[in-house]
Amino acid sequence: MSRGARRCQRGRTVTQSRTPQQIPVVVLAGFLGSGKTTLLNHLLHRSGGSRIGAIVNDFGAIEIDAMAVAGALGDSTVSLGNGCLCCAVDTSELDVYLERLAHPDTGIDVIVIEASGLAEPEELVRMVLASEHPGIVYGGLVEVVDAAEFDDTRTRHPGVDRHLALADLVVVNKIDRAPHAGHVLDLVRSLTDRAAVVPATYGRVDPEFLFDCRPSEERIGQLSFDDLHGHDGHDGHDGDDGHDGGYGRDRHDERHQGHLHAAYDSVSFVSEVPLDPRRLMAFLDSRPEGLYRIKGYVDFGAHDALNRYAVHAVGRFLRFYPQGWGAAEDRLTQLVLIGTGIDAETLGKELAACRSDAPHADEHGMWGVLRYVQDPDGTSDPGEPA
Ligand SMILES: Nc1nc2c(ncn2[C@@H]2O[C@H](COP(=O)(O)OP(=O)(O)OP(=O)(O)O)[C@@H](O)[C@H]2O)c(=O)[nH]1
């Protein structure tokens, strides 16, 4: 591929033409919901002594992915929200962040850019290669594939084959959900050019596949949000947070008609009023076919005052993950919906109608939601919608 790109050798990656001062920049891509954020969180927790700088690019106006990554490590990410990095973000903005992260004071060993699920990886790779910063070197393209949805994704987007052909490493994720995992692995291998193809569940791959790790004792901790933003007070959040009960069709640059995201719309929804679990389940059960991805956090108010519920829908797959509210956290529902041919106004109205008007929890109200909560040991698979 390009100068500086890595090759996998017997399960380990090697950065070529990298001087000791140069920090590899790894592009982490993959279709909507394939498991990029899950993999990035795994890397952040399992990178031994290596210090990772993360740049997270969300498609929707609310930065759900950035929250998921930052939430795990105390705001140690840079967020480039509302639009695919490959079009909507100015190259110079990416350069500014790369420069900041690559500054020797940060002590960062590797930078991972998590692309939005609709980004064009070759554009991202081009942007990294175009950076003239001497302190960084392109570190390779990692593509995450959802093994359970792979056939469907390829049918919807034949362009995915092209993305795989460019990859240096393909993580075939969600092996636990794929009844024909062997078939998917063979297919992916036939579509890649030179990539290592690694099966995974919940993105648990050896970080050494992506970069050379330092021993654990060298770990010096993650950076603060301020470190990454250069103490300039700019938090990179341009979403419509705090806009109660509000929803909006997010604007995306449609110059690049050949891009995956040209056919997709996203809707963001924020509410300070808790949602009623039965109404939300009715909404989710009847969600339109084109609404491929839902992610975010739900406040069910008195129905569970201790937890917010992270929600993920990918195709017909649906899960809720209860997470304790932080003491200083705003009790908000924040959702991003992404799909093709979706009616943003109607979806927004339907979500607004899910807001609760009852002051008390009804006793069995959460049952429908709890069907989609995974057991703590992660072994059982709750029922999926018909
Ligand atoms: N069963 C199963 N679920 C997984 C696995 N990996 C991720 N998930 C779930 O899949 C959903 C989507 O995962 P994410 O990591 O948010 O996917 P993403 O690629 O970052 O999503 P986008 O940012 O929308 O493109 C979440 O509910 C994850 O918990 C896996 O290996 N097995």
List the SSEs and their pairings.
Blueprint: E1 7-9, E2 12-14, E3 23-30, H1 36-46, E4 52-57, H2 64-73, E5 77-80, H3 91-102, E6 110-114, H4 121-130, E7 136-146, H5 150-156, H6 159-166, E8 169-173, H7 181-191, E9 196-199, H8 225-229, E10 246-249, E11 264-271, H9 277-285, E12 291-298, E13 307-314, E14 317-324, E15 333-340, H10 344-352, H11 367-370
Parallel strand pairs: 3-6, 3-7, 4-5, 4-6, 7-8, 8-9
Antiparallel strand pairs: 1-2, 10-11, 11-15, 12-13, 12-15, 13-14
Structural class: alpha/beta
Instruction: Please report the distance between the alpha carbons of the first and last residues.
Output: 44 Å
Q: Helical segment tally?
A: 11
Range of strand content: 15-25%
What is the name of the CATH class of the largest domain? Alpha Beta
CATH topology assignment of the largest domain:
Rossmann fold
Describe the largest sheet: 7 strands, parallel
Instruction: Round the Cα radius of gyration to an integer and report it.
Output: 20 Å
Counting structural domains, the number is 2
Small-molecule binders: guanosine-5'-triphosphate
| Anisotropy-based shape | globular
CATH architecture of the largest domain: 3-Layer(aba) Sandwich
Which whole number gives the mean pLDDT? Answer: 77
The overall strand count is: 15
Provide the spatial order of strands within the biggest beta sheet.
Answer: 5-4-6-3-7-8-9
Q: Which residue ranges are poorly predicted, with pLDDT under 50 across at least 5 consecutive positions? A: 1-16, 72-76, 216-243, 379-386
Within CATH, the superfamily of the largest domain carries the name P-loop containing nucleotide triphosphate hydrolases
Helix content: 10-25%
